[in-house]
Amino acid sequence: MNFSFLHAADIHLDSPLRGLERYPDAPVEEIRAAGRRAFDRLIELAIAEKVAFVVIAGDLYDVDWRDYHTGLYFSQRMGRLERQGIQVLLARGNHDADSVISKNLPLPENVHLFAAKRPETKLFPELGLAAHGQSYARREMTENLAASFPQAVSGFFNLGVLHTALSGRAGHDLYAPCAVADLLHKNYDYWALGHVHQRETVSERPWIVFPGNIQGRSVKECGEKGATVARVVDGAVTDVRHVALDVLRFVHPRLDVSGCARREDVFALTRQAIMRALSGADGRALALRLTLYGRSPLLNALIAQEDALREEIRAVAIACGPVWLEKLSLETEDEDDAQNADFPGADTVATLLTELRHGDFFEELLRELSPEIAVLRAFCSFLPGGGADLADADELRRGALRLLAARLGGART
Questions:
Q1: Looking at per-residue confidence, does 395 or 15 come out higher?
Q2: CATH assignment of 3-244, among 3.30.450.20, 3.40.30.10, 1.10.10.10, 3.60.21.10
Q3: If pLDDT is split at 50, 70 and 90, which confidence band does 373 have?
Q4: Which among 98, 178, 331, 337 is placed 20 to 30 Å from 254, CA to CA?
């Protein structure tokens, strides 16, 4: 039997792009609608490709629903697929485990939710498909679920559906840990994985794929986001391709401004980076985090006037197209010069720099101020990021070093 299927994961339906709407000139409507619009694109892709089924490998939802609107929206979209004869295979992950989702609605008949107690096999004889999967019973699933999956069913195309970090992936909790060898041992034809938000093809013999999430939710999830379409001919995977579905794309260029002598040079460099990002975004709005770094007297001056520079960069970005400056970061390399400089009080400055870099001054300060910080975060929710940086010791350390180096650099020039 020949057929195609669509593999998606980590949709986090109705999860907000937290705090982003609070920034000036933010594309509010794009942000609010991004998750659902990306999911609608997923549905439209499944119909356009005439797939036999859609796999959602965990974290369809982010947390428990605030109300039933999220579930009703999902049911309506599944109904569209049902009317097209498209089946849906759904496994729950750590964010939407049985112990997390308390609200429920009847699932449309075309949606099969894998059981949480043990691995389950669902046969589709008309496709020659044996689909094996297991949902999470609780959020922190630390057992090797793959070890209990059954061996491949002879004469069928065998598909495994699992939400896992494998042996570990940066930025992701080690849930349902397993080795690639554990998956290979089952002799399946395709492993549809979820949990890792960055697309990754782990293996092609057999196919073991993380499709990534369909919409980035922060600057930590930069670049193209989407799902995977696979084609099966005579029981073998013949084609696997990624299709972009994201609506709003995060980008984070880092620009070395060491060779810039004037502010206009910095703006020109920034404009070039933005235009490159836009050229690959296919008309999507961009959320831009820009980092300027290097060793330059000009950079020291820019740091001293960071507020004005941010507005100037925002003007450059807006002029380029649908681009919104999410954050501007400045990093100077003149800290080393400051530590070795020869001026009155240099020894004291060198000691202070060492303490700022390697000591626990900021950690102790934040511990002392934790009650006050909690109050400030409540009252500063209107600020960019919702006041999230108020309890970030590394951010405080970097800021202090930047300002000190900039002031010293400016005093020497």
A1: 15
A2: 3.60.21.10
A3: low
A4: 337
